[in-house]
Amino acid sequence: MAKINSFFRMLHEHGGSDLHLCAGAPPMLRLQGDLQRIKHPVFSDEQLRELLFEVTPEAKIKEFEETGDVDFAYEVPHLARYRVNFFRQHRGMGAVFREIPQQILTVRELGLPDQLAELALLEKGIVLVTGPTGSGKSTTLAALIDHANRHRRDHILTIEDPIEFVHESRGCLVNQREVGRHTGSFKAALRGALREDPDILLVGEMRDYETIALALEAAETGHLVLSTLHTVSAVKTIDRIIEVFPEDMQAQVRSSFADSFKAVISQTLMKRADGQGRVAAVEVLRGTPAVRNLIRKSENHQIPSVMQTNKHGGMQPLDDHIRTLLEQGIIDRATARHHALDRSKFEDASPLS
Known about the structure:
This protein is of the alpha/beta class. It is about 35% helix and about 25% strand. The protein has 2 domains: about 5-100, Beta-Lactamase; about 115-345, Rossmann fold. It is built from 12 helices and 13 strands. A 7-stranded mixed β-sheet has the order 9-8-10-11-7-12-13, with helices on both faces. A 6-stranded antiparallel β-sheet has the order 3-2-1-6-5-4, with helices on one face. A hairpin with a 2-residue loop joins strand 5 (about 80-90) and strand 6 (about 90-100). It starts with a helix and ends in a 14-residue tail after the last helix.
């Protein structure tokens, strides 16, 4: 048994999300959003390398030595899978392990709006799940893929770095490809994907111009594309998609993106007031004709108003959901104010109704 597995058991038993191991610092667990030190001697760089490299594939050790950082997945049988990142820092080596739940929860079990499950049944278009690091994007995507897998009879192809949730083929044929193991890059995998007869494409992250361009092309040509971006609101997500392209291409991209756009789910995790874990606040923007028209005309600043007037159609502004959680006593006012897009709505003197 690998020595590091005892840390994973501790993380799992405490219900934590991340394990941090860094040379020159004590080991830490992220519990309910906060880092807590483990009573353990500080690792030297040499000790930490020995501990980490025991569970690291040779190819990933070589990549780390050459580049200074690397991502991969590690699994402890009968416990959990972990998304792993190694990096160099001023005291030596560092590593973060994010625990990936073995059970894939449904949209309802995650506390997300029931209507989001319908997005997994769309025939084509692009659906984006966004939010800061650690906001549960991968978990939400896994719920959508699982829903499609159980209710469709199609080919699901995922491109991930690394593979996180493992999906068994149920109603669908599911093929999962990992960047670095099964393909050289997101771009290379996406180029090949259109020849592999997929119905649903999951792109783990749209990191650069070419990946975004290929994902949009796939959505335009009759595929359902699911992906993530590190943005904090639906409007900023659209801005990010357009602005990654050269200025002379943006009008064309705006039009093609508007045609294929189906939804943005923007989420953030917040501490519960009772201290029992965290809860997701979710913003939902749907690709209605009005929204698509605003995207084409580069009038994204008007989208929040459309969201407010179309809440009956499945849209949900982030601050509205935060206010609901506050009114229900699930979060406190300080947490609401910290995560709100418009913090003035949550000042101490502002009413709750």
